[in-house]
Amino acid sequence: MATPPAPHSFRRRFLDELPGDVDTSTAPRPVVGALWSRVQPTPVPAPRVVAWSSSLAQELGLDDALRGDPGTAAVLGGNALWPGMDPYAANYGGQQFGQWAGQLGDGRASVLGELQRPDGGFSELQLKGAGPTAYSRRGDGRAVLRSSIREFLCSEAMHALGVPTTRALSLVHTGQPVVRDMFYDGNAAPEPGAIVCRVAPSFLRFGNFELPSARGDVPLLRTLTDFTLRQFFPELGAPGRDASTGLLQEVAARTARLMAHWQAVGFVHGVMNTDNLSILGLTIDYGPYGWIDDFDFGWTPNTTDAANRRYAFGNQPAIGAWNVARLGEALLPLVDGDEQVVEAAMATYATAYTGAATQRFAAKLGLTFDAAQADGQLLQDLFTWLQQTGIDMTLFFRALAPLVVADAAPAGLPPSITAAFYRAPTDEQATTGVTWLQRWWQRTRRERRLAADIAAAMARVNPKYVLRNWLAQVAIDAAHAGDFSKVERLLHVMARPFDDQPEHDDLAQKRPDWARNKPGCSALSCSS
Ligand code: AMP
Ligand code: MG
Description:
This protein is of the alpha+beta class. Helices cover 39% and strands 12% of the residues. It has three domains: 10-203, no CATH class; 207-292 and 306-363; 369-528, no CATH class. Strands 1, 3, 7, 8, 9, 10 and 13 form a seven-stranded antiparallel beta sheet that branches. It has a two-stranded antiparallel sheet with strand order 2-4. It has a two-stranded antiparallel sheet with strand order 5-6. A hairpin with an 8-residue loop joins strand 11 and strand 12 (189-191). Helix 5 (206-214) packs antiparallel against helix 6, helix 5 (206-214) packs across helix 8 and helix 10 packs antiparallel against helix 14 (427-445). It is globular, with a radius of gyration of 23 Å. Magnesium ion binds at residues 275-276, 285.
């Protein structure tokens, strides 16, 4: 069989246009006055592509036959480069759990290059887990298979849900064990290692801007901001004070809309440090994330955050705002220290969040949001009930569309809703639920649309299949036993989350009892 053509149209704007580190070693160190450091991925013994996103490959103009080509495994495993690739690690800082942490940087990620897509745009290809960089600090630069499977699958699942996100092209099994103390209890053990090839127009984070600003390096901050404006926000006009103001406004709005989207699908990021917030408003850095099974605003998947719950489900919108405020402070030197610029961005955030969240949740109920019809109250009352009952979020919303096409409001709790409880509701909760359903059903009659059209629109915003934690864990357990077919199946099913796929109904179930407290299914550590 002929070898499929390797991609060759790479460019390297980040390296060509921005100051880099003169030191090319990977000795961990502070890197001052530079936005990146060169890195060569560290080779692995036996790279094998064990999962591959054909849909992304197609968008990138990559021949699908590359998946089975040993040359591809070599490149995506960090053992070789395609012509034109020139890897680097980016330098950034971040606020971690509310504290400024100083320089962090890509400690285990290397950007290989920017590939020109058939549509003319460019996408960065980045390996995560390809070995140490100048920013690895005490880390080994590697990633374990379980967290890599989770990042690979969730990136593609989020994309299919329509949530802005970095993508994942491939999952490579490296053949090199990685030692991790999964529970932080002193029991470090070897686990299979893996590398994900992530893809995005840019992996720039809030932290890339915060670091030069915190160091008082205004020229470097300006260089980076001007680059970002030129490359990714040309509509904001020529770099300068106004464009910088516009950038903050735009990032505020995008972040707010992203938070509304996360809330609407029940996604909890888990580590919303400013180094994990994308300047493009993408979901980035899938670590100890999780999906809401039983509805709970207080839930966090991240065991490291279990005490404070800073990044719990219900806090995400406020933390998004907090992070935008930190970005705003970082950009102050570019707007003559005018704090009103930051205040205006915060106002934009609040308006954008409320608008997007009400619109998304109303759409989940089949409604065109209308404050005059007390839709705000209807939503509030629903959230209260969801929180009190702890009903399965995905199953609850998915159960509504069939009720819209019924001839009458529900007289009791429909079986599809009863089946979504994890614990039986009290009589009062059941009555409140029925009353709410009746109010909601009556409200749907005042939409100027056919019930069938409303139901069809609801099915396009209430997913049937989300990457529940326990589903990913089952696939991970199989992968550890050498069977990647479950990963493949999840990739396939999650690519069409809104479609009924009756042969995959077992993937649309609420969390089974055995998974309730099983590590990976309920809570995850940051160890990855
Ligand atoms: P995270 O919160 O997982 O996005 O990571 C926070 C920081 O730690 C980033 O700078 C990462 O590059 C770095 N990091 C995480 N794991 C490792 C590792 N195994 N080796 C080196 N750096 C790491
Ligand atoms: Mg990160």
